[in-house]
Amino acid sequence: MSKAEKLKARLPRGFADRAPTDFAATEKMLSAIRETYELYGFEAVETPFIEYTDALGKFLPDQDRPNEGVFSFQDDDEQWLSLRYDLTAPLARHVAENFDALAKPYRSYRCGWVFRNEKPGPGRFRQFMQFDADTVGAASVAADAEICMMASDTLERVGIKRGDYVVRINNRKVLDGVLEVIGLGGDDKAHTRLTVLRAIDKLDRLGPDGVRALLGTGRKDESGDFTKGAGLDAASIEKVLAFTAARGATTSETIANLTAVVSGSARGEEGVSELAEIGALLDAANYSDRVIIDPSVVRGLEYYTGPVYEAELTFTVTNEDGQPTRFGSVAGGGRYDGLVGRFRSEPVPATGFSIGVSRLFSALKAVNSPLVTGHEQPGPVVVLVMDKDQIAAYQKMVFTLRQAGIRSEMYLGSSGMKAQMKYADKRSSPCVIIQGSNERERGEVEIKDLIEGARAAENLSTNAEWKAARPAQFSVSEDKLVDAVKEVLARHFS
Fold it and tell me: Which CATH class is domain 381-492?
């Protein structure tokens, strides 16, 4: 191809490549999360990246344009398919399809990529990873309380200290009760209710005044963009804000405040009763210092039907403008009793939560968690190819090292020794194995410790000193190769 015809290497907006170091550290974090979930009796299940669009709970796309929010396409029988936008909707389909074969309550966890067809921005990706745990088939709010306890244990296991996080719980029934009281009950008010939910969900970021504007006529942000509000009157706005501010100094005080706010709504009173039961369970298990009842938690998704919760990190970090700010939410979820029931004739209770893997990983970096820092693994030991006619001999060395459990490779390029050494440096190799004709005649190999050599080089000022010192390079007999390499690795890596 001519220069003009060559493709331009470019990454689609909202997607990212992952480097080996981040990949390895993420795997350590995922392993710690998995251990916590399994300790609670949850077991793994995996669902495909692609589901039928209607199974995800989205409307079919208009004409030829994929539905907003999901990546969609038609298959050969003109059925609409979509990349999953979360891990909960596919779980609902899986449970419904295998309902009779599953032990219930069904406790499962899933980890995988999800996709959002949304405008990307700083820290906002179109592909990101979630790690979910769900209990399906348990109507008791004890299942919700247990999920919140597990969220707390998970954060501590991955390296977030107690006091640096809080798990906050609310109940959508309570908010439904508030909305009934101000005249927003019924199917015809569903759109307005959703607008109210989304406004309250921004309370941490915008504060009461910002939410007040979104509950009323609307709000113009710093960039000049205007967001249309819910159109509530002043009295209704104050009722909603009173609900979000109902948290007291103790669980019992919060329950009393909420009881007053939802007075006259049977659904709201049911939600308050459920929160009181969850609070009692948390007290009994000694989690009430870090898992709290907080009416400001809403969660924006429409399918939540009862308790909702968020895990929030409370320590401060520096934002893009250099200002200190709280890190914020890294996980959330709630009860979604109607989602599985869409596929079946009877209702199926369910509750669960999801960890934002990338966001939690960023948090662990911010607190220098040993889970994701300080565990850099060595690159492979590289056997240099000095004589092209001795490839078999070099390959035998690699085989011997691998048999001993040592990560290693033979240089497969066509360059000379200097380029091979540069290659080993780029691979973060701890050492290289060198054998030319002289070493072969003596039955020896040269081992060059690249880490020690780099340290020594910092203290050598001339090429003559370098040659005289031959830093960190030594000879051993071929039968001592494995032992010598192990000594080099032990010197630098635990």
Answer: alpha beta
Q: Which region among 48-52, 99-103, 432-436, 490-494 has the lowest average model confidence (pLDDT)?
A: 490-494
pLDDT at 375: 53
Binning pLDDT at 50, 70 and 90, where does residue 47 land?
Answer: very high
Locus of tokens 């200290």? 161
pLDDT of residue 470: 54
Give me the mean pLDDT over the 468-481 stretch: 83
Domain boundaries of the chain, sorted by first residue:
20-49+84-366, 381-492
User: What is the reported pLDDT for 152?
Assistant: 97
Residue with tokens 């592909």: 127
Class at the top of the CATH hierarchy for domain 20-49+84-366: alpha beta
Q: Is 271 exposed, middle or buried (CB count within 10 Å of its CB: 0-12, 13-18, 19+)?
A: buried
Contacts 24+ apart (CB under 8 A), 286-290: 287/148, 287/149, 287/152, 288/251, 289/162, 290/152, 290/162, 290/163, 290/165, 290/166, 290/167
pLDDT score, position 1:
61
pLDDT band at 303 (very low <50, low <70, confident <90, very high): confident
- Contact residues for 239 (Cβ-Cβ < 8 A; gap 6+): 178, 181, 182, 261
> Same CATH fold, 381-492 and 20-49+84-366?
no
What is the identity of the amino acid at 106? Answer: Y
Angle, helices 234-244 vs 251-261, to 10°: value is: 160
**Is pLDDT above 50 for 260?**
yes
Residues 392/340, Cβ–Cβ less than 8 Å: no
Contact 157, 39 (CB under 8 A): no
Euclidean distance between CA atoms 494 and 487, whole angstroms? 11
